[in-house]
Amino acid sequence: MAGDGSRESHRAAFPNVARALPGSAVVEGSRRTCDGIEAMRFRPVSEEISVPALANHLVVLHLGPPVAVTQRTDGERARERLVGTGGSAVLPAGLASEWRWGDRGEGRADSLHMYLAPALIREAAEGVGVDPDLIEIRGGLDPYDPQIERIGLSLLPELEAEAPLGGALFVDALSRALTVHLLREHSTLGGRARRAAYSEPGEPGGGLAGPALKRATDYVGDNIAGDLTLAGIARAANTSPFHFSRLFKRSTGLSPHQYVIRQRVERARELLINTDLPLHEVAETAGFAHQSHMGHHLKRLLGVSPTRLRNG
């Protein structure tokens, strides 16, 4: 079965390895977004595990020292490789697999698991005019994929922090970037369609058309206190989320996440100067997760703390 890149995914009852094999690993920092990505740090407690078919695609980023990894998928011949820090693996949804780790020096299996819903692959394929029923995600061990490493290392602090600074919009952007990367580099996508996946619609000079940009920025302004998502802003601009981020950056010079943070800082600045609202209410009204989150960004962008800004 192709399409969403899964094989018999209707039979896969478990969304991730931790749910499929309780107690098989030390799991830390599990986090899910509304756009179909779940991530967690995964440290297996045994040297070998057998993973049933999963409902989601799994992308693994190795975080520890080099370790020998043997992988077998659905009865295929086992593949063994020395995986260094930053090495990765892709396991398509719907495929059972076996994994074995062997020590090399001080190497231990310590990885970031990133799970993507097959629906994301379908949406990305449709966004570039490709029939999703003709696409499958390809699995395998990769000694080094710089894009997977970059996305994973950007996502990791969001899992480990008690109060993440990036927020939902930042994680949404990472999930979209990972989805597009799988479609481009780890799928059966053909050459012409692959080129389409690297291009974006928009005005001839690049960027969003004027009315679309205005709808996007108006939507941010009207919903600044809420939990803004990349999908929501892109929908306001009537643009695919998989193209929106780059088009928006070409138009404004900022990523959607950077733009939203700047707008929230400006809203907080106005409230601090013109009202007597307590700091925690200012933070909430401006859309920050908490007061310290607001303080961090005011200090970073304006060079002053909320208290100093209020006191002049």
TrEMBL record:
Keyword terms of this UniProt record: DNA-binding, Transcription, Transcription regulation
Residue ranges constituting the HTH araC/xylS-type domain according to the UniProt record: 214-312
Pfam families named in the record: HTH_18 (PF12833)
Source species, domain of life: Bacteria
Residue runs in coiled coils: none
One Gene Ontology molecular-function label: DNA-binding transcription factor activity
Keyword match Transcription: yes
Cross-referenced InterPro entries: AraC_XylS_family_regulators, Homeodomain-like_sf, HTH_AraC
Protein name: Transcriptional regulator, AraC family
Lineage of origin: Bacteria, Bacillati, Actinomycetota, Rubrobacteria, Rubrobacterales
